[in-house]
Amino acid sequence: MIVKTFKIVCALILLMSLNACSTVSGWFKDDVYEVPPTELTEFTQEFEPSIAWSTDTGGSNDIYSSLDPWLQGDAIIAIDYEGEVNSYNAETGKRQWRVSLDVPVTTGVGGGEGLILVGTKKGEVLALDASNGDLLWNAKLSSEVLAPPKAAQGIVVASTSDGRMTGLSAKDGQVLWNYQRTVPLLSLRGASAPVIADDKVISGYANGKVVALSIIDGKVVWEKSVAIPRGRTELDRLVDIDADPVVINNTVYVVAYNGRIAALSLDDGSILWAKEMSSRSGLDVSVADAAVYVSDEEGNVWALQDGSGDSLWRQTRLLRRNPTAPVVVGNNVVVGDLEGYVHWISRQDGRFTARVNITDAAIRSKPVVSNNLVYVSAADGTLTAFRIQ
Questions:
Q1: Cα–Cα distance between 117 and 114 in angstroms, integer?
Q2: Which of 121, 143, 135, 211 is nearest to 173 (CA)?
Q3: Of 385, 343, 389, the residue nearest 78 (C-alpha)
Q4: Of 178, 152, 150, 176, the residue nearest 164 (C-alpha)
């Protein structure tokens, strides 16, 4: 009994340490750092970013939440932490519909199959009609939904905090299959969103593995370790894959915390190349450049050669500013930071080409690109659409 109590106390101490560590690594503006975020330096702006429209979507008071917007058809959909969902015309920003679900959420919306999908803290998935926001069905899952659900081929897939991936009928929310991996004693707050590619669901897990499941029945197609836990303490052994995978041209790109960035074959999971890297933010890929862009845990933004992982350039002037995952936008990559700044960085050599401040709140979500616009969402609900120049 004494031994059991001691183990529980140790686990609680480690958990408090993890929370402190997450705060130091900085998800929000008022974090306390041993070393403060790098001050922004002056540079010659090469162009002035053009704002097409901006609106307030409500945002979140949860320091761990990342309420990513979702593009579907001609609409961009956003949600706040109390479950108010707004659909806007993606080109003009005009609201198309709004619905108040009155449910607690910590992640953005997903969709597909004519549905807008909301995952809640209480372990529910709510399916809305994409055309008008009407609630179509509500499914109860095993635990909190930490990543936006996705839908394709008549199936909705959702990941929950207990390491489970669930396949639901897009028609009525009936559970069709379940897949579960053991969650480590300690893990980072967050989860990799499922990515649907062909007939597979790709997702990263807190044990450093990437898994491909059949979307039809949830059976494992392949799994591969991108990061292997090492070190004496549970904190040292954190290898979560919280950043969403990117799938392009039959290749899966993924990055782990305290692990590696890697390119894997979509067919069988074989590793095509890998490089030591630690990131919770994520990455983007440019086929034209044969380059992979990633923000690491320290705040460096990298360009890596696709095919080898060799460094092409590194932008070091965003250290401890928690840049989001980069997104390829024209001749630049775009990232947001913890003080509401949006940075344009040249794909050619990593120099800053433009910068604008859209809010005082942190930008945690990876910007979203569609047609001639890039959308940036901040924690306070500021959603801004920039025209691509």
A1: 10
A2: 135
A3: 385
A4: 178
Contact 231, 258 (CB under 8 A): no
Contact indicator for 129, 115 with CB cutoff of 8 Å: yes
Digit-coded pLDDT (tens) for 24-81: 333 333 444 478 999 999 999 999 999 999 999 987 655 556 799 999 999 999 999 9
Q: What is the DSSP letter of 163?
A: S
Residue extents of the structural domains in the chain: 1-64+286-303+311-389
Please state the φ and ψ torsions of residue 3, each to the nearest 5 degrees: -65, -45
DSSP of 46-101, one letter per residue?
SS-PEEEEEEE----S-TT-B---EEETTEEEEE-TT-EEEEEETTT--EEEEEE-
CA dihedral of residues 321, 36, 257, 78 (deg, nearest 10)? -40
Give the pLDDT confidence score for residue 64 in this predicted structure: 57
Indicate if the alpha-carbon torsion angle 359, 71, 244, 306 is positive or negative: negative
Give residue for tokens 């490089």.
275
Whose CA is closest to 123, among 96, 94, 103, 153?
A: 103
Residue 23: what are its φ and ψ, rounded to 5°? -65, -45
Q: 56 near 382, Cβ under 8 Å? A: yes
What pLDDT, on a 0 to 100 scale, did the predictor assign at position 165? 95
Class of domain 1-64+286-303+311-389 (CATH, top level): mainly beta
Mind listing the pLDDT tens digit for each residue in 306-350? Answer: 999 999 999 999 999 999 999 999 999 999 999 999 999 999 999
Say which DSSP state 384 is in.
E
